Structure prediction request, 347 residues.
Amino acid sequence: MARDATRRRVLAIAAVTLPLAATGCQGLAALGTPPRAAPDVAVVGDAITVEARLIAHYDAVLAAVPALAGTLRPLLAQHHHHLARLRARLIIPPGSPASDPASPGAPPRGRAPVPGTPEAALGYLRDAEKAAAAAQLAHLTAAPPSLAQLLASISASEATHAMILGGHGRHR
Amino acid sequence: MTARAGGPAAVAALQAALAAENSAVYGYGVAGAHLAGARRAAAVRNWVAHQSARDALTAMLAARGAQPVAAAAAYELPFAVHGAAAAVALATVLEDRLSAAYLGLVGLNDPALRVFGARAVRAAALRAAAWRGGTLAFPGLDVPAPRQRGPATAGRGATAPASPPPGHPTASHPG
Prediction:
């Protein structure tokens, strides 16, 4: 655990300091443009956006169909864990535009309104989970190894969420 | 910075996945004997799936010029299995360990093995969730310690205390 956290920190520090080191020999003019984020920072940013949108979908459904709380809250809690684990891989300066790529409180955009019946709402979230599970694998081969493992694990978790939401629960 | 497809890291990760499949084939044989009806059918389906996966991994290792690890004649189980509840818990543990083993392939630099590993993590996580009747936040990454009665509610795994990954069932030493 501690070793992993250290590695994450080193990764994040490297992402910030390496571009600075690379531009260090160019004199003060190099300070005019902010350093570009390392590619894996962009991958984490995309993954954070996917999670934040999913959380917004859950919040919208919970507001529309409170009767589903018992089913949805445990799954939603796991998405908050996903988001926290992804955010822990970044050191984000406070107030920077990247600090909140998709506000969890924002209503979902680009999707149909939340259905009002429990059955339709579960289907809506099942589709959202499937889409998220696929999206988290989009950068699988480009990510550094430990990030690829985190993304594959989160994607697998979301696939199991879709299964539970589809009513295919426990072997009886 | 791409490791060769047949590099030692790839072989080691494939061997670990094969060892987990070998113990799963053995473990499902034990679990299935204590289950009936739909759960027995699921155990048999999974047993067959793990035999196929074992054969696929064996072929992948052979193609890399490596000697695939042999299955042991018997494995020490994480707990005694004398009934259906323990059989379900054993199947859950087997799948949790498989998801961890396949996540090792995702940590390689070979893109094809990463994709292969990610699919296998997903398949194991789905089977584990069906046995557990709930989901984990980080399948393969934060694996709950083996215990006879699995977590009863979805989401418990997400709050489970961090524990070292459970060891694979250890091969019993034949006499």
User: Anything to note?
Assistant: Residues 5-26, 99-108 of chain A have pLDDT under 50 and may be disordered. Chain A has five helices and no strands. The interface with chain B takes residues 1, 73-75, 77-78, 81-82, 85, 133, 137, 140-141, 145-146, 148-150, 152-157, 159-161, 163-164, 168-172 of chain A (CB under 8 Å).
